[in-house]
């Protein structure tokens, strides 16, 4: 697949028009066979591409993403369209009065929005199994899940439909599909990227993040979204490996890769990991349930059955339990901060295994079969709890199903994550292997 950086360079130099790039991308999106795309935005894409070409013709700077096609998870506001958040009940309106802030920033940088993408209904799940829009299929094996809730975003990039896509991450919804689809992805530090204009799930945890098949592309779109550089650090990062439940519930290949990456790094354990995950469940369920409480009472049958019961249960959680979970979060964050003080990066698995089969969506947790939709985030939820930035990286596994790792940094320490990711790619430990049938996006 062509990189976003290459496309933008070709468009800015006049070797290719943004309109021609958009037209090919739209044709590719229309042919999507992975149930990744919910709407192809042809009229908007062609208008934005024409505007990029006009800026170039006038001798203006068309931006770092000049003519680069991208797509967004269907919880980002797109002006003039309803924001479905993965629910057909919302497809009838109301329409968004303006673009989400992240979409506005990508447009200002020359990006061309081409489609909206599938997700778990209201972002509640790690599978992208959607009663209204279908189950997104993993481009590496269409019989397997793409992960979620940003599965459509991950599948669209992994299939080569677009070089960049935006998702959201509440408890792992970027990191899990990045791992299962073999991509780079970002869960930013708390509040670092703009969430304005996105449909909320659990506001204590909601963040947005990009997917890319190229590390340079990821760094570029990350900078555009945050409005400032994410420069690799000058010094080699101090690394620690996460042990305990992070190793007990991991694919052996993930543990072996972590040990090979940093064989001398200390093996440390985060305190109360299982309790942190439980508290994250409580906070997520409570906030999600309260958000939907009125709509559920008015018309519960319009909700995806797999999500409805979980939201209703959350709406019934007592205030006191929620308060206890928030109090524990404050204690947990302080403990993790102290434990991480001597280090710049923590290494951990992302999803605990390769993509499960759609027909048998179960995974092993503590040796017992467990539903994938609820448990693929076993390693991401405790990290979400901390508010720390995470760069998801794919292990280099040609001919095998993808597996990924979390590079977990300090607040303000994103440069260490980029430096380590680049070093790992140079060493051949990590990197994207596109599926054999991925669209390559050649110039014509």
UniProtKB/TrEMBL annotation:
Segments traversing the membrane: none
Span of domain Amidase: 35-227, 292-418
Classification via InterPro entries: Amidase (IPR000120), Amidase_dom (IPR023631), AS_sf (IPR036928), Carboxybiuret_hydro_AtzE (IPR014087)
SUPFAM superfamilies for the chain: Amidase signature (AS) enzymes
GO molecular function: catalytic activity
Protein name: Amidase
Organism of derivation: Novosphingobium sediminis
């Amino acid at each position: 697949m062509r990189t976003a950086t290459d496309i933008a360079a070709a468009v800015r130099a006049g070797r290719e028009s943004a309109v021609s790039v958009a037209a090919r991308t739209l044709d590719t999106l229309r042919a999507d066979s992975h149930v990744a795309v919910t709407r192809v935005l042809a009229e908007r894409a062609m208008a934005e591409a024409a505007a990029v070409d006009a800026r170039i013709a006038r001798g203006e700077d068309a931006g770092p993403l000049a003519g680069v096609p991208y797509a967004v998870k269907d919880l980002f506001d797109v002006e003039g369209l309803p924001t479905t958040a993965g629910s057909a009940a919302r497809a009838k309106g109301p329409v968004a009065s303006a673009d989400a802030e992240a979409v506005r920033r990508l447009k200002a940088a020359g990006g061309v929005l081409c489609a909206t993408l599938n997700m778990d209904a209201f972002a509640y799940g790690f599978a992208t199994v959607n009663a209204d829009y279908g189950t997104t299929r993993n481009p590496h094996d269409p019989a397997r899940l793409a992960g979620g809730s940003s599965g459509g975003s991950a599948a669209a990039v992994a299939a080569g439909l677009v070089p960049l896509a935006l998702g959201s991450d509440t408890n792992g919804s970027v990191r899990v599909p990045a791992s299962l689809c073999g991509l780079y992805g970002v869960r930013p530090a708390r509040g670092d990227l703009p969430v304005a204009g996105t449909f909320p799930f659990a506001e204590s945890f909601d963040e947005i993040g990009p997917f890319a098949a190229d590390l340079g592309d990821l760094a570029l779109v990350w900078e555009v979204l945050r409005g400032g550089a994410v420069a690799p650090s000058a010094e080699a990062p101090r690394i620690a490996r996460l042990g305990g439940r992070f190793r007990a519930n991991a694919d052996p290949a993930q543990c072996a890769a972590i040990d090979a990456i940093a064989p001398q790094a200390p093996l440390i354990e985060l305190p109360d990991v299982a309790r942190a995950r439980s508290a994250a469940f409580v906070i997520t369920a409570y906030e999600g349930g309260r958000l939907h409480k009125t709509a559920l009472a008015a018309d519960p049958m319009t909700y995806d059955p797999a999500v409805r019961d979980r939201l209703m249960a959350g709406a019934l959680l007592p205030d006191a339990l929620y308060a206890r979970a928030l109090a524990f979060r404050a204690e947990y964050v302080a403990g993790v901060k102290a434990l991480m003080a001597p280090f710049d990066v923590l290494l951990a698995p992302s999803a605990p295994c390769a993509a499960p089969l759609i027909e048998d969506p179960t995974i092993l947790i503590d040796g017992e079969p467990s539903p994938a939709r609820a448990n693929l985030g076993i390693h991401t939820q405790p990290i979400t709890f901390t508010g720390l930035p995470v760069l998801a990286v794919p292990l280099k596994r040609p001919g095998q199903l993808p597996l990924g790792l979390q590079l977990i940094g300090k607040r303000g320490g994103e440069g260490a994550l980029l430096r380590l990711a680049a070093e790992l790619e140079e060493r051949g430990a990590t990197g994207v292997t596109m599926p054999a049938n991925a669209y390559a996006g050649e110039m014509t």
